[in-house]
Amino acid sequence: MSSASAFASAFSLLSMKVDVIGKLKGPTNYYRWSLMMKQYFIAACTCDGTETKPVISGTVTAADLEAWENTNNYARFYIITTLSDELLHFAEKMDITTAALWKKLKDNYTTTTTMSAFVKFRAYFSHTITNSNNFAAQLDEYARLWQKVDASGAWRTPELLQIFGLLMALSDLFNNIVEPILADTKFADLKLDDIHNHLLNEVKCCTTSVATFHALNMKASSSAKPKSGRAGEKGKCNFCGYKGHYEQEFSSSHPQSLAIEP
Fold first, then answer.
1. Burial degree of 103 (CB within 10 A; 0-12, 13-18, 19+)
2. End-to-end CA distance of the chain
3. How far apart are CA 83 and CA 109, in angstroms?
4. In what order do the strands lie in the sheet with 235-237?
5. What is the C-alpha separation between 150 and 152, in angstroms, rounded?
6. pLDDT at 222
7. Euclidean distance between CA atoms 168 and 161, whole angstroms
8. What is the pLDDT of residues 135-166, one digit of tens each?
9. What pLDDT is recorded for position 101?
10. Where are the beta strands (DSSP E) in the chain?
11. CA-CA distance, 166 to 80, in Å (whole number)?
């Protein structure tokens, strides 16, 4: 098979792969991606996992070497097409072998980073903290579960990681709080208690503000003057349904809106 026909054949297989495997976005979906990719390579016979280029010897011919290079190039191409933009830097070295590229991706997955540790923690804490009446209880539950993980010996984490995990667990409703905290140049100096207090105060203020808004809105509605009908014209009260209120009687008896009868 010529190089051109081999590439065309490989590219036709690629369309099948893209639909099935999807993009590798990072530690969160590495395990599934690696299984799908391995099965694909087995089916397509495009990768043997050899990391070091074979040296021509009595048993390795130039044809064998060319076949290895073609196989490696195709397999590397397959992997690159599955990488999300933030992972493409692993493939910057153009002569990297498929196995070496795969190892870099695996190392990225297994390295203990803030994000990978957070992914592990989400196995214990999978729901999203929301703005509700039991917000403080949700924070307490988060802290309890974190202590359980920490005591299990799975890993020992710095306080900063707990803060990061907490901020990531908050729903999008808290973006106006979370984003300034993450952008703070002194983020590394933050304490978990400070974040707790800040969140609780914000929720309290928001709750108070909402309650005040509704109270003021109710007051404004009740004190608003009704739409005036024509002087002396009978209307129907939307509050009690009684027909016969006059404009003068309406505002003093029922301050709701007035529907004028035809």
1. middle
2. 89
3. 13
4. 243-245, 235-237, 258-260
5. 5
6. 52
7. 10
8. 777 777 777 666 655 554 444 455 666 776 77
9. 92
10. 235-237, 243-245, 258-260
11. 33
Q: Measured between alpha carbons, how far is 142 from 148 in angstroms, rounded to an integer? A: 10
Query: How far apart are alpha carbons 128 and 131 in whole angstroms?
Result: 10
Helices 3-21 and 30-44, packing angle to 10 deg = 150
> pTM score > 0.70 for this model?
no
b/e per residue, 13-41, with b = 16+ CB within 10 A?
A: bbeebeeebeebebbebbeebbebbeebb
For residue 135, the model assigns a pLDDT of 76
Phi and psi based region of residue 127 (left: phi greater than 0; alpha: psi -120 to 50; beta: remaining): beta
Cβ atoms of 171 and 131 within 8 Å: the answer is: yes
Environment class of 145 (CB within 10 Å of its CB; exposed 0-12, middle 13-18, buried 19+): middle
The DSSP element (H or E) to which 47 belongs, if any, is: none
**Cα gap 85→98, rounded to integer Å:** 18
Would you put residue 56 in left (φ > 0), alpha (ψ -120 to 50) or beta? Answer: beta
At 86-107, the pLDDT tens digits run 788 888 888 888 999 998 888 8
pLDDT in tens, 215-226: 444 544 555 444
DSSP state at residue 259:
E
Amino acid at site 93: K
CA distances from 174 to 162, 202, 249 (A): 17, 9, 48
Please tell me the distance from the alpha carbon of residue 257 to that of residue 79, in angstroms, as a whole number: 67
As given in the structure block, the two tokens for residue 248 are 């003068």
Distance CA 183, CA 19 (A): 37
Assess contact for 254 and 230: CB atoms under 8 A.
Answer: no
Cβ-contact 131, 96 below 8 angstroms:
no
